[in-house]
User: Fold this.
Amino acid sequence: MREFTLIRARSAQEAVQAMAAHPQARLMAGGTTLYDLMKLGVERPPAIVDINGVDELGAFDTSGARELVFGSLARMSDVAADARLVRDYPALSESLWRAASQQLRNMASLGGNVLQRTRCAYFRGGEPFACNKRAPGSGCAALEGIDRGHALLGTSPHCIATYPGDFAVALVAFDAVVDVLGPGGVRTIPVEALHRLPGERPDIETTLAPGEIITRIRVPATKLGRASTYHKIRDRESYAFALGSAAVALTVSGGKVEQARIALGGVATKPWRARQAEQGLVGRALTLETALAAGFAAFMDARPGHHNAFRIELGARTVAEALMTAAQRT
Ligand SMILES: Cc1cc2nc3c(=O)[nH]c(=O)nc-3n(C[C@H](O)[C@H](O)[C@H](O)COP(=O)(O)OP(=O)(O)OC[C@H]3O[C@@H](n4cnc5c(N)ncnc54)[C@H](O)[C@@H]3O)c2cc1C
Ligand code: SF4
Assistant:
C-alpha cells in the first residue's frame, strides 16, 4: 500500500475543511470499501479524512412523525436492528440485513454503503484491463468480456457496470434524500439523483460536488412502509451481491392497489426506480399475474449483453415475489 496522510476530523465542518485543503483526499467512514480499493491499487488517495470521531454523524432517529433521520456514520447493523424500522419499514431493514456480512455491517456506515463503487471485475482488476471508470478514455473490457453480473438498465457504450449496493435501492423506493455539507454550504439531494448514469463519463459517479460529504439520510414517514420488503437473489445466500433485487412497497384499498413503489437493485448502473411498472399496478387487484406483469414492465428497457439476459426473467420474478410478500403485510 502507498503512503498517505491521515487526518482525523472532529466535526463535519472540520472534515469539509480538510477535504478542501487536500483536493485528492478520500473520506473514510468504516473503510470496508475504501481500504479494499486501496489495496487493489484502484484508489490511491494521498490523504484520508477519517470521520469516525465525528459523533454528530453517528446518531439516528426513527421515531419522528414526519421523517426518519439517519446520520451518515450510523452503522448498518445498528440501523438494521432498529425495532421501528423492522416493524414499520421492513424493506429498509431487510436491505441492510441482506448486505455483506455481520462483521462488515458492524463496521460499515450508511453513507459509505450508499457511495460504494462497482464490483466490476475489470474495474477492480487494475491496469491489465481497459476501464473508462478507472482510467477515462481507455475503453471498457466488460463490453466484450464476461458480463454475467453487469447491468441491463442505464448502461452506455462506455460502461455497463452495475451499482452493487442494497440500501440505496430501498431508499429510492421511499423517496429518501441526503443532506450534504460542502465548501458551498448545505444542500439536499434526492437519493434517486445522487448516482449518475455512466453516459460518456462513467468515472463521475455521483452528483456530489468536490469536497461535499453526506451528513444525513432522511426518509419521509409514509404508510407505504409497513407493506414493504426487500428481496435479493444471489449466487449464495450470504456474503454476496445481488444478481437481482427489488425493494417494493404497497398500499391497498378495497382489494385494489392504491400506491405502489418498485425499485430494482443489482441490475442497473444506479439504484433504479421502475415508475411505469408502479403505475401499471395502481387500481388493479394484486395477483401473481399482475405482479409478474409489473415485474416484466420494470425490465421493458433492459438491454442484455452476452451473458446476462437470464437476469431479465430472474429480475421480473424477483419483483413479482416481492410484491406478493408485501401484499401479505397490508
Ligand atoms: C465481501 C464484501 C461483501 C459485500 N456485500 C455487500 C452486499 O451484499 N450489499 C451491499 O450493499 N454492500 C456489500 N458490501 C459493501 C459494504 O456494504 C460496503 O463496503 C460498506 O457499506 C461501505 O461502508 P463504509 O462505511 O465501510 O465505507 P468506506 O469504505 O469508508 O467508504 C466508501 C466510500 O464512500 C465514501 N464515503 C463514506 N462516507 C461518506 C460520507 N459521509 N460522505 C461522502 N463520502 C463518503 C468514501 O470516501 C468511499 O469512497 C460488501 C463488502 C464486502 C467487502
Ligand atoms: S463496465 Fe464500467 S467499470 Fe467495468 S470495465 Fe467497463 S468501464 Fe470499467
About this structure: The domain at 55-115+163-220 is CATH 3.30.465.10 (Uridine Diphospho-n-acetylenolpyruvylglucosamine Reductase; domain 3). Residues 11 and 54 are 5 Å apart (CA to CA). Residues 118, 120, 122-123, 131-133, 140-142, 159-161, 202 surround iron/sulfur cluster (ligand 2) (CB under 6 Å). The chain is about 30% helix and 20% strand.
